[in-house]
Batch of 2 targets.
Target 1
Amino acid sequence: MKKSVSNIAFVPIDNRPITYLLTNKITDINTSLKLFMPKREDLGGLTSKSNIEAILSWLKNLPSVDLIVLSLDTVAYGGLVSSRRCPETYDEIKARILKLKEILSLKKQQNPDLKIYATSSVMRISNNNINEEEKEYWANWGKRIYSYSYHQHKSRVLKEYNCVYNIIPNDILEDYLDTRKRNFDINKFYIELLKEKIFDYLVFSKDDTGEFGLNVEEASILDELIKKENLPAITKTGADEIPLGLLLRGILEDKKIKINIVFSHVESKNLISRYEDISVENSVLSQINLGVKNAQITDINPDITLFVNNFQNVQGELVFLDSINEFKGKIPKFQTPYIIADISNANGSDNGLVSQILESGFDDNLLAYCAYNTSANTIGSALATGLISYFAKKEGNFNEIAYKKLLITRFLDDWGYQANVRKIIQKREDKNFVEELALNLEKFLPFEEKIKNFTKQDFNVKYSLPWKRSFEIEIEVDYGNKI
């Protein structure tokens, strides 16, 4: 019989709450799990790269663990954002990876049962002129670079003439293409390490993707290399949630589970979400296949239900206040424990759905709620939370306080902040947003009160903006007495 996973080492993509703190909060739900993570200050941020030597040292000195989940961008480039910005050459980055290889090889020698699951990003191409997470020239040339990328790939796929007139300065285009080639070559080097069994499973993430683009083309080439050698690897739409999917995969190991998928708009499950290149249904199945090796999708005597609040026509966008959707139907009464993945809007909750959830009263069968960022982010995070909660309950390792704190955090973040408070504060442009948040904490009070009434639990909350921007908020819940 295989030994169950209990000791896990986890290297996140960066230091954001959703990539660092969320992992802790999810594993806390199962009291049999022990999580080891690098110091948060050693991980990359928006404008800083990770302390790579410190992280390599941390990995080298780890106690014996059952599973290592590794975001390779952190070690190779200093983080997800840094992977698009850092100026180092291929040879400099490869030298770091060879140090990593040496450490991981030694760990496997010491513990032959150790599993190492890794993920690396296929460098994204944002369709905007915002350089917050890109090189400086993106502010002027981002949309042009996206167009160049899109039509270069499209013309090769469809074998048609590319009529786009490129006016990107040569030095900028050359730098961009050189950076892409460097990252692509590093990803191909990871495949060589996979062949050497340094990794047991490898995921190439496609962040903010679409139908065509140099990133889509690269992912297709990586797919061909994987299939040619029949390697344990995939390319996959998503980014932030993929380490959580790998974590779930390792924890569940060979556990079997029957999942019933219910869509709020079943007729629209073949539509494609914003920032993705596959249908909603395939996005759901992709997340399940990543995290659960032995999942059976069925509506006959299922163990759990995954309720996906999808969009009917076009996914709303709460950051840009574009085409916002609101749930109008009735939430089904589920006969099993259930998970809610709310993807009606990108970057936050559907107010209509959350109102119904809160008005219905707390249900012990609710395993998880999530409405964070892209559809893949939401579905993957919801599944990791919900399935770890399900098996922790089933096996007698359930930490109810940790579960409730996470549920409260997600409602405060995805609903209270992302769908409501952020847009209230963003209307004020005369002050820095960080200052605006500090001056407007009372805007959270109505949402806090509704969540307290829903959970029958008192709590205090601390809010902050760790990356000094409005996109993500950090929420720390201090648990109080039952109401």
Target 2
Amino acid sequence: MTRQVPFKNGAPAAMDGKPEIFSYALMMETCKATKPTGALQLVANAAAGQYWDNSDTSLAVAFSQMADLAPQTPLEAMLISQMVAVNTAIGKIMQRGMLPDQTFEGKQMNMNLATKLQRTFLQQIDALEKLRGKGQQTVRVEHVTVNAGGQAIVGHVEHKQGGEG
């Protein structure tokens, strides 16, 4: 379920018959922010360049996209805010590059920029996965040979400081 927050005049508005304080609280919780201004800044950054003419609609759409990605920490919220903005920029630049009256050079420049932004977006996905612990590698040992007189240890090894074992 996507959590929606309506915006009016650039700020969270009342929703479902509840005062606007509930919208602020939902925005702060979703953005993992301790202050409303910090949460609103993240949403405003994510809304930069949205397709919607109305800034309140842009804020609501950006917030919805951020909520869909469910940030778990303030750092994730910052990264997700950037990801939403980059994703929007990719679409806008690709659209601009495909305009019928666009010159060849213009198309090439826009497609090159869109490609760079797509690489950035993929790097952001990797960063988010690492933050969430999904980017960890697992090493699996299939076969170990220990020759006569050799020693092997399988498992976690800790070395203690000082004279302790």
